[in-house]
Specification:
about 130 residues, alpha/beta, 2,3-Dihydroxybiphenyl 1,2-Dioxygenase, domain 1, four-stranded mixed beta sheet, about 35% strand
Length: about 130
């Protein structure tokens, strides 16, 4: 079994689409003709993020059980640097941390209220 996709419901459909396409690098693609607005965003020919337009500007109240965030692994140092450049170019606020013990680097971004995205990559190599 493997993860198929994640769905993000937001009133900020176009700005969230821009985030996932411009910052993350997904592509907007074919979507069934549902009766509500949305986008299917693809990576490697597969729709991995489904966006749905919401009519409410307020995220649902957090409960003790919930999915906290979606994470994307960035494979190379070059792609990590390009990601940071795109975030800065679009004035997207992010919080940078490192995992204890492993040193893997993380960036946390909130592209729309109630949705957190993590980017993770290998630690900085010595030398």
């Amino acid at each position: 079994m493997k993860l198929d996709h994640a769905t993000v419901v937001t009133p900020h459909l176009e700005s969230v689409r821009h985030f996932f396409c411009h910052i993350v690098g997904l592509t907007d693609g074919a979507r069934p003709p549902f009766s509500f607005e949305g986008h299917w965003l693809y990576e490697g020919g597969k729709p991995v993020i489904h966006l749905i337009k919401s009519n409410s500007d307020h995220p649902p109240a957090k409960s003790s059980s919930r999915i906290d965030h979606i994470a994307f692994r960035v494979e190379t140092e070059t792609n990590w640097e390009k990601l940071i450049a795109r975030l800065q170019e679009d004035d997207v606020e992010y919080r940078a941390t490192a995992l204890p013990a492993t040193g893997e680097r993380q960036l946390f971004v909130t592209p729309t209220p109630g949705v957190m995205i993590e980017f993770v990559t290998a630690p900085v190599s010595a030398g």
